[in-house]
Amino acid sequence: MQETQNVVLYTDDLGQVSLEVSLEHETVWLSQKQLCELFDRDKSVISRHIKNIYKENELEEISTVAKNATVQFEGLREVIREVEFYNLDMIISLGYRVNSKRATEFRKWATNVLKQYLIKGYALNQQRLSKQGLNELTATMELVRKSIETKELSSNEAKGLLDIINNYAKTWALLQGYDSDKLDALQGTCEERFVLNYDEAKHAISEIKKDLMSKGDATELFGNEKAGEFKGALLNIYQTFGGVDLLPSIEEKAANLLYYIIKDHAFSDGNKRIGSFLFILFLHKNGIAYKSNSEPKINDNALVSLALLVASSEPSQKELMVKLIVNILSETD
User: Where is the Bro-N domain (predicted)?
Assistant: First the structure.
């Protein structure tokens, strides 16, 4: 690993830990000394966890550790020594093994900083769209993409956000159109094979709840509908006027279904999980879940990230979020 000028400062909530986190090769790096400070643990504890992580094949050493020549002072002597640095995959794995408040804080920071870079970066671009040409806009989005890639890429949310950017270039090109407030609505698939029935959906949610509760991943609050909100969401996606569907395509219905469940908090708990499940179920039943090459149009990580983006969006961004999802679903290659 070469020395880098790309450094981001991490400070914990209480200001007790302040680390200069190096950015290199699309990830972040901390030395063992920094890991000890971050997690408030002795060197022997950190070393033992690292050895166990490699021993249990949770991570591969070759891809998670790098050596960097670092200048150290020993007495009056200036000595250059090779110091081992560990990337974000190792940092996150250690965080899950080390039971400390600092570990939890860093995990949250590692996820949130990436989300903020995407959302704030895109919002910043939106302010410039009306004044810039397409080439400059494309370059700006490329900078946002690179900024994200040089941050924390270990969590599923992080990788999913990158999937959305990297795998759906057509969608992002549309988002970068000359007019900052316009994203073309695509025609979509109008031949509907499956209608999501309220009772069937509630039964499916009940089955998910049983499975999750048996694993300790949900409580009794999971899937409890709030004042008919879910029924209202279904009515919304199947609304008609003069006998014509207001949302004519399957893609539009699916996108709105995901949005309404997550954003309107249709259930007491589990909105993102339930919304994502019914979204995928709806796509599968209507035969539009896969591209022509048999790859899923939205993979697991991208689905997690879409749910995250919907939950984080402003109410005024509903149309943008729905059109983003519709455009992703319209990718066929």
Answer: 1-121
